[in-house]
Design a protein that fits this description.
By secondary structure, this protein is mainly alpha-helical. Helix content is 31%, strand content 6%. Helix 1 links the parallel strand 1 and strand 2.
């Protein structure tokens, strides 16, 4: 099992009743300290519009898409 942080490892171990030595902590390959948030723009504050192209059938799980 692989986790991206010790906190995630702790959650996985508690949930799956695993010993900590069975879960490898392998951090993300991106240095988050070098990333800067982009400035807010009017478009970022606009309402979100989501489109769907496909057949409206149960296995598409559209209620999950709407809830997200």
């Amino acid at each position: 099992m692989v986790a991206v942080s010790e906190a995630v490892r702790d959650e996985v171990c508690a949930f799956a009743d695993l010993p900590h030595d069975r879960v490898l902590v392998l951090p993300n390959g991106v240095d988050l300290a070098t990333l800067r948030p982009t400035p807010r723009t009017p478009a970022a504050d606009a309402p979100l519009i989501i489109g769907f192209v496909g057949t409206v059938v149960a296995w598409q799980n559209l209620p999950e898409l709407i809830a997200a």
